[in-house]
Amino acid sequence: MGITRRSFLKLTGAAFATSVMYEFTGQSQAMAADASQEWKLVDVTETSTICCYCSGGCGTICSARDGELINVEGDPDHPINRGGLCSKGSSQFGVNSIYDDVTGERMINPNRVQKPMVRRAGATDWEEISWEQAFDEIAKRIKETRDANYIGEADGVTVNRCEAIASFGAAALDNEEGYALQKLCRALGMTYIEHQARI
Amino acid sequence: MAENAILYDASKCSACKGCQVQCKQWNMMPSSLGKDENEFTGSYQSMPDLNGDTRLLIEFREEAKANGIEWAFSRRACFHCAEPTCMEVCPAGAISKLDDGTVKLDNTKCVGCKYCTAACPFEVPKYREAFNVSNKCTLCDDRVAQGREPACVQTCPAAALTFGPREDMLAAAKTRLDELKAEGFDKAELYGETEMGGMHSLFIAPFGLEAHGLVRDPKKPDAIALFALIKPLTGIAAAAVFGGLGLSFLTGIGYSRDEITLDSASAHDDAKEEN
Amino acid sequence: MAGLGPSFGRGAMTNHFSDFKNADVIWAMGSNNAENHPVSMAWVQEARAKGGKYIVCDPRFTRSAALADIYAPLRSGTDIAFFGGLMKYIIDNELWQKEYVENYTNATFLVNPDFAFDDATGLFSGWDEDTNSYGTSDTWKYQIDSEEPWDISETGPFAWTQAPGVPAFAPKVNAIAKKDPTMQDPDCVWQLMKKHYERYTPEMVSKVTGCPEDKLLEVYEVFASTGAPERSGTILYAMGQTQHTYGSQNVRAMAMIQLLLGNVGVAGGGINALRGEANVQGSTDMGVLFHIIPGYMPTPVATKHANLTAWIEAETPAASYWTNRPKFMVSYLKELYGDFATLENDYAFDMLPKLDGTNHSHIAVFEAINNDIIKGVMCWGQNPAVGGPNSVFEREMLGKLDWLVAVDLWETETASFWKAPGVDPSAIQTEVFMLPAACHYEKQGTVSNSGRWIQWRYKAVEPPGEALDDLEMIHELYHKLKEMYEADGGANPEQITKLNWPYETDGKADITKVAHALNGYTIATGELLPNFPALKADGTTACGCWIYSGYYNNNDAKDDPSQQPTGSRGKDDPGGLGLYPKWAFSWPVNRRIVYNRASADVNGKPWNPERMLVEWDGTQWQRNDVPDFGFQVVAPDGTITPTPPGKTAFIMNPEGTGRFFAIGTGMKDGPFPEHYEPFETPARNLFNGRQNNPALTFGSAESVKPSDPEKYPIVCTTYRVTEHWQTGGLTRNIPWLAEAMPAMFVEMSEELATEKGIANKDRVKVFNERGSIEMYAIVTPRFKPFDIDGQTVHQVGMPWHWGYGSGHATGAIANDITPNVGDANTSIPEYKAFLVNVEKV
Question: What is the pLDDT of residues B190-217, one digit of tens each?
């Protein structure tokens, strides 16, 4: 979706080019900068997002260069937060990247899990597995559990349910993902479907 | 160029620390990557004071009064004095005053001697060990040059921080002070109008200066005259002289490194640039 | 939020963040908005700059309280007493908005004369000790005046029910309630309400809440001032109201106050539920809950809904906008099962699993694991090992599972429960899968904020390593399962294999395709529908979530979210009221303030011309917002006929009014909120003869381990701080935030600390029957002991963001000692008021 983004051009006098791009993409105008000197946001691609924390829905601008995250700050055009972000909102950069406390070097947040893992019954540690294996094993367990505990009919009524599997979560997912999740769960016959609204 | 200033209105601050974190975000300052290495202060305050990786800190002070709790929030960072003693003492010429009043510390020139910390009436500049430099607020002069607000100002969700021509900020501050007095904040004061020759970071203290931990009538340290004398000497030469003099006011800050050279300092800094 | 629905018809926040500036009074109660929704403070400050007042009620002096014009303390769990007292104050002092109450609420409606409340027993009429419930609550109903059957003739409004393809069902008959416009009849809602709250005197409220009487009256006076027609007051609430065993009744009480003062539907008014998570609103809209399917429709229950006809007949009311429910349901079923869903097979209604009628909520999941019913659990970005009530028990239960899938960015406490401190991994047989997910800006899609704004998030960077976004995982799992069921068969394979799943482009999951499904489309052409009025019950339209219809409806740029209503970034603000109708899309139909008919008098004149949302100018409706009522009729030839002002201000309620009296089974614990003590409490219920909410859920579960006030006399509450979020999964893994608030603590008064010999920064343990946890003490004047009916009651509080998992700050899990009992209506756990004791370590 290249047209949803705009670039800061390193050229002096790029105002015309950038203003055209604002109109084209509908991205932040208030962020317009005269890129006349070298600075942190040279040559970045900007995308807008919404903060992942509270339910305020604060607009946020992410700047990336060569696939690396450079900066995350409030979207000055956004009518709710007008560029503002609290401590959590201001830390959104840190979900993806952090700075080393000795070298100052930017790096992917080392706490992020980057490969699928499994902990076997009774094991004391994780083992890394491929996605193919992960999906295969999980689907097998879902199927086994579902097939062994499926209730097709109860008291003469078709109920088509499986009470042996529960799903938690969705408030951290996008709407479209949440929809797909409940659809998959219900197609498995699941009835224990819950997310953070309850807690 | 007109003088600029930040105006911090503690009566609107919700102490969310957005400024504190966004300052680190924009300026690429790390925090400890260890586990449970951060000290618990016994309050909501993140750390006891500014440090080499922290240019802005929200402070918390609370006191029970007859008419309720006074929970005083403070924004602790460089005030950008009109007469910056840090600049006067810097032996490396790393600290300068920009046209708009910003007191800038250029870490490519800094030799890490910590004189600025000692000379600052507020002990704001802090030593950043990994880079052997002093570190403090630059008023985001890079952002300001691009027509943006300083990172802390833009990110304040409660509009407790504003930025603009100093005259405008002073006028707004005085209007706000009148409002606060009318609301019953009879101890409310404005800080920074005249202190240290006039600051470029103004502070509305609804509960009075002391309640917010502000130094009333800040003065240049007594030894300032000495610094002024030695000022013409720069760089390593000055550091050596100071080391030799063993000035008493420096003893408290643990300065012990006299092996640093300008070359090694800039080499270190080059390394950082590559990151 | 349960409590709002039975009052107004919809369960969502009525207004939105940038509307707070329009309020004359903003009251944060059960919400610490400065700390937990910091962006709200900009709007609170704008209101204050215009002379508005900001009231904060909270057991402790918070960062919100620090900025408030008035702060009033109250003991956790006594909100209904506080609200009941305000209702009495408003009624006694005649501060209610007369024209509003008489026309837009059910105050004039007559209730079944057998309805009663007995303060000796603390029970409403209809209580059944055997089932421990009010059952069908037959007396909680209106007296019927007349009946109007649906007009299903060719020209009638319900002609659509007879169209080919529409499932057969019996047309409904609308029962019109008897009313007494003078509000003098002893059976009318007004008189019943007045009588019910007579007991809530300031003296009694003060004794129960511990709020000094003068403070109480100061709050009452300032907030009740918004009963003046031109003034508006808003209430901000959050989990401080809902996380109680009577949480829904807390919300009901606020709804009643706002109806009394005429504050619902107006700019600067409403009841604003500040949701706890970025997309808890959206995931509720999406029906990712056991009891609702998308768009707030009830999940089929075997005992009531044997087939689609039964579901429609049981769940379609005789009046209100919900009469269109069959259209929404059939369109949902068509989205789920595509061509497989036909009129002949009930549009595949049987493929939707039917509940057995029992509670399948969060707390129930762990009871079901304990009872060997549940064997496998999937956690999608949720961390119950820290976030669930009685989390010691929840972690123990995870160890009984055959398998667990944890989808997250980090190794959360749930993913790593088998290596928690003191746990022997070799003794745990659960197989655990950890799937690395993408964060919000490493993927794209929409989120819905509390104010119902659906906003698009774009992808900024790729997720690190092999991490995938959730849709990709769901998509892959679906395909794996489909392949397995196609190849090997199994239990009812068609439920999976016949599923309609067109969410990919070039073999990869494509979220814009899901957006098409949510918005809805005409099946024959694939054209996106303009909005939900275009939905049909005849199987020709498909729509995943009817209330989202219109958010993604631009057929000219179907794969470009920035060209869709949800991606729009226009900053127009008609009326200067902060409505921003061209910024993103707000459900329903881009309406920013719901129930906005009530912003104007019966003749359509705004109560306050400066806050005009809609206005009848004598010939048509002028409008700054999308009207929430039938404001015009568009003929098939396009001719528009404006509809003159009517009195139906609450179109989702069959009677068209807001409700002081919650009718039928809307509330499971009474048509009027009544004070009960928390499940664990050091105090006796002074208002009635029943100590606890009789209908609370899971109170008798063995796992709860009630804590006795003799041993544990201190009230404890849990909360959040600005610097962290929820279970800390995100925030403890970000060094800046771990530094910003590095350690777990409990806050207590200087008085309690002196009594216990505790100094600030001491290590202390907080404990009860469920567990004992160790942390730092913050000794502060911001907590004060309460005087409860002459007794000193101490309260302490602690945040719940810490745990033992990955990250830079670890600490005790607060929920290890919270009780796993639930609200009568929602089963939301009681996190806010329980008993503990405290000792220096």
Answer: 999 999 999 999 999 999 999 999 999 9
Residue A191 belongs to domain spanning: 117-198
- How many domains are there within chain A? 2
In the 3-class helix/strand/coil scheme, how is C216-233 assigned residue by residue?
Answer: HHHHHHHHHHHHCCCCCE
Measured between CB atoms, does A33 come within 8 Å of chain C?
Answer: no
A13 pLDDT above the threshold of 70: no
Rounded Cα gap, residues C127 and C136, in angstroms: 10
Amino acid in position C383: N
pLDDT > 50? residue A15: no
**Of the residues A49, A77, A108, the one at which a domain ends:** A108
Least confident of A25-29, C548-552, C765-769: A25-29
Structure tokens at C112: 């079944």
Identify all chain B residues contacting C38, using CB atoms and an 8 Å cutoff: 14, 16, 18, 157-158
- Rounded CA-CA distance C260/B174 in Å is 41
Nearest to A113 among C302, C411, C734 (CB): C411
Which of A53, A68, A96, A99 should be substituted to probe chain B, the one whose Cβ sees the most B Cβ atoms within 10 Å? A99
Count Cβ neighbours within 10 Å for each residue of A113-123 and write b for 16 or more, e otherwise: bebbbbbeeeb
Pairing of strands C271-273, C233-237: parallel
| Cα–Cα dist C190/C195, whole Å | 9
Say which CATH number the domain at C738 has.
2.40.40.20
Burial class (CB in 10 A: 0-12, 13-18, 19+), C584: buried
- Inform me whether the pLDDT recorded for A9 exceeds 70: no
Interchain CB distance below 8 Å, C405 and A193:
no
Binary contact (C41, B157; C-beta < 8 A): yes
Same-domain check for residues A60 and A135: no
Tokens, residue C13: 């926040």
Output the CA torsion C470→C472→C478→C479 (10° steps): -170
B109: CB partners within 8 A, 6+ apart = B92, B93, B94
Instruction: Give me the numbers of helices (H) and strands (E) for chain B, helices first please.
Output: 9, 10
Asked if residue A30 and residue A99 are part of one domain, the reply reads yes
Contact flag C378-A167 (C-beta cutoff 8 Å): yes
Q: What confidence tens digit (pLDDT) does each residue in B239-270 have?
A: 444 443 434 333 333 333 233 333 333 333 33
How many C-beta atoms lie closer than 10 Å to residue A124's C-beta? 11
d(CA C330, CA B33): 53
**C729 lies in which domain range?**
702-840
User: Strand (E) positions, chain A?
Assistant: 6-7, 45-50, 59-65, 68-74, 97-99, 106-108, 117-119, 127-128, 150-154, 157-168, 190-194
Q: Which residue of C has its CA nearest to A114?
A: C465
Domain boundary among A108, A143, A171: A108
Domains of chain B: 1-23+47-269 (3.30.70.20)
Q: Into how many domains does chain C fold?
A: 1
List the chains bordering chain A where 3 or more Cβ pairs fall under 8 Å. B, C
Q: Which residues contact B178 (CB under 8 A, 6 or more apart)?
A: none
* Short-list C196, C200, C284, CA closest to C4: C284
If you ran DSSP here, which 8-state letter would residue C252 be given? H
The answer on A125 and A62 residing in a single domain is no
Is the CB of residue A42 less than 8 Å away from at least one CB of chain C?
no
How large is the ipTM? 0.97
Distance (Å, whole) CA C251 – CA C534 = 33
C544 to chain A: which residues are within 8 Å by CB?
179, 183
B223: which 2 tokens? Answer: 């030894």
Distance of CA C40 to the CA centre of its chain: 18
Indicate whether C7 belongs to any domain: no
Residue C632 lies in a domain: no
